[in-house]
């Protein structure tokens, strides 16, 4: 079993583990398994070993929260000497001269960046494939690892690295976490400070991990808040639970609803008060989400990509984004936040399924039409995107198991702004009461 990030960092700080040897072991696992899993667009073998040696020589080694921990970063990240591919052959491929804020925070904490993980073009879909490969679920390789942080999820679920960085604009951390049986946290808006917010403020950075403690540790580094690494014991909470698919009320597969029931039973036994209740999501909120899903990537494409070289599905999406961009306004967001605030005056936390359908299959989705991509994308993500628009923290945690497939079933925990510690505390409580297998 691969050591957790907490265990690796503790061992390196104590002088019991060598960062170079830890990195060599991670690179060996990647070499052995990534041909099947397809987690990485680029493995930084030589660079990672050099970085590990630098970490081992640091004078502040005993103080580093991620001392010697191999980390995968999503291929949207500014890493010195690399380019961010964004799943595309249409963008600039000149290497960055210096680290961006995410890579800089990881390195300052002592992490070793072993590679850049695969994403769909412009991070548009919850299936991660590009012209060089497909990210597969390590538990059920016929199914996608999710997206857009699918490569990061595959890398962690396969045990290639203990933790990975992702971004979440409509569920892109939580969806792959749910598909691959991981803990995935989307923090609230502004918790991870960066120069520019993506997708009109809906996108943020978050951790993917096999344990709640590892997710909390990585979140503390991404958010530059060491206190987040310490998970509190939760007091009794008023928890709402709902399996109603927002707006459409589409049928929900029974195993996904059963996970919510199981989580509710576990949290009731832990002393919390559980009530069935559903927020007033609203059709106007869904329209605001869709508008931003079109317009955000269109703005990004206009700035950094050659339109004619984009994949056909992406060109269609960008064209629609040009049409919808004038309609991106804050009125629907403001109305939705007001309804969410009203809901959370009566409840401290909301539990829903993370996924609204079973995961899509692992295919060359980039060769398919825009409509063929959009239909499964919209259906599977029904529960997640609303909380990006509100800017509320939300976390996916494994709970059960599909009765016939080797797939985890997960739940989403949502709480008001500032409640990341509470979500992590409840996830840790569920993990203690109902441990899940850590990696394939």
TrEMBL record:
Q: Which residues cross the membrane?
A: none
Query: Pfam families, alphabetically?
Result: Amidase
What SUPFAM superfamilies would the database entry show? Amidase signature (AS) enzymes (SSF75304)
| InterPro entries, sorted | Amidase, Amidase_dom, AS_sf
Start and end of every Amidase domain?
21-424
The Swiss-Prot or TrEMBL record describes its family as follows: Belongs to the amidase family.
Q: What is this protein called?
A: Amidase family protein
Organism classification, top ranks?
Bacteria, Bacillati, Actinomycetota, Actinomycetes, Pseudonocardiales
